[in-house]
Amino acid sequence: MFRLDSRPTACSTTITIAAATLLGLGVVMVFSASASLTAPAITERPLQNSSVRQAAYTFVAMVALLMVGLCPYESWRIRGKSLVQPSIFLLLLTIGLLAVVLVPGIGEERNGARRWLSLGPMAMGLGFQPSEVAKLALTVFLAAFCSHWGERMRRFWTGFLPAIVILGIVVGLVGVEDFGTGALLALVGGCVLLGAGARIWHLMLAALPAVGGLVYLIILKPYRLERLVSFLNPEADPQGAGYHQIQSLLTIVSGGWWGRGLGAGIQKYGYLPEGRTDFIFALICEELGIIGGGAVITLFGVLLWQGKRAMDSSTTEFGRLLALGASLTISLQAAMNVAVVTVSIPTKGISLPLVSAGGTGVIFFSILVGLLVNVARARTPATEGDGRCGLSNSRSGTASSEASSQETGVLPLMPSNVRPA
């Protein structure tokens, strides 16, 4: 056992800067996308203005990112013979919320899907999506569970099966009303289990019922089949099922390489639905051009790359799996959103992380980034002078000290808590 020391590194700083840039861009683009020729001025009712509230959510998200980045991630680890298990409590709370939101009269239905739980009076319009909480809860729990079980994850009945059952429960509850997020959680969960040492043939065996479940979820909602058919041929119904996809492509193309200019977009004036949320990337391309859209993709690529560096240099198995899950959740959702906007995959309601409007998504994705920052900052006191991301393996450090002692003929210093035999 050793105590982790949290110090800023090039990796943690890069992650923070990239995330803060995306958050800032999100506020600017939500203000631009919310422009209307008929809506009242922002100064009339600022507290109920969606753009002002998005700015407030982003401020809270940035504070949460910094605070989580400073708090030791080891506090989420599963502790043997202890009643205090934060990761398990968070998972159970999330499963409860996912079940409650499906109850008619409790869960709020918006845009044909019951995904919201209201907070406070209806006039305030405050609420959150439990599916966003599930992304954080499942990432933390799987990392804690797999690191606690260790080599047992290679056993089917006592290691792999309990983890895949829990993953299936969460994916099923989310996928009933949010197929895109359910597919994302299934993919991220499978990758974390694989990274924890689960056997490939175990995952292949679990994939058979998983595929059947995903097919059932597609058939469960008729509009999902309609989206699949319209994806294959959007021009067949340009004013109906294919309208969204065609307008998204027109929005991207109309910006050209350099864009129309910030705030000068046209498609946001009633032509492109969900421009503030799921299709904000199309508006970015219209106003900032292909160059601006490419810069956004590059920022997500930086987060993925730095997440890999944090994972590779982590001193604990829990930190390694936590960085893997957080990096994949952010980058895969970003890839799915860009693929939907560019009509590379069928339309599904999934936002662009840290950028799209929505308080729940912005805050909980920022918490995931904060965990990633914390893993990147964690290092042992023996490497305090090392400015690289994380620290090198302690075994390699021991080996190098032994090699140097053999060359110089001087014995290395013993730790203070070890007495010579």
- Biggest sheet record: 3 strands, antiparallel
Helix content: 55-70%
Gyration radius, in Å = 24 Å
Distance between the termini: 22 Å
Measured by DSSP, the beta-strand proportion falls in under 5%
Shape: globular
Spatial arrangement of strands, main beta sheet: 2-3-4
SSE string, helices as H and strands as E: EHHHEEEHHHHHHHHHEH
Count of separate structural domains: 1
Give the beta-strand count: 5
- In DSSP terms (H or I, runs of 4 or more residues), the helix count works out at 13
Averaged pLDDT: 84
Structural class: mainly alpha
Pick out the low-confidence regions.
381-421
Which helices and strands appear, and what pairs or packs with what?
Elements: E1 5-6, H1 10-33, H2 50-70, H3 86-100, E2 108-110, E3 113-118, E4 127-128, H4 130-149, H5 156-175, H6 179-195, H7 200-220, H8 222-232, H9 243-254, H10 280-312, H11 317-341, H12 359-377, E5 378-379, H13 394-408
Antiparallel strand pairs: 1-5, 2-3, 3-4
Overview of the molecule:
With about 425 residues, this protein is mostly helical. It has one domain (about 5-380). It is built from 13 helices and 5 strands. The protein has helices at about 10-35, 50-70, 85-100, 130-150, 155-175, 180-195, 200-220, 220-230, 245-255, 280-310, 315-340, 360-375, 395-410, and strands at about 5, 110, 115-120, 125-130, 380. Strands 2-3-4 form a 3-stranded antiparallel beta sheet. The chain has a two-stranded antiparallel ribbon with strand order 1-5. α1 runs antiparallel to α10 (about 280-310), α1 runs antiparallel to α12 (about 360-375) and α11 runs antiparallel to α12. It starts with a strand and ends in a 13-residue tail after the last helix.
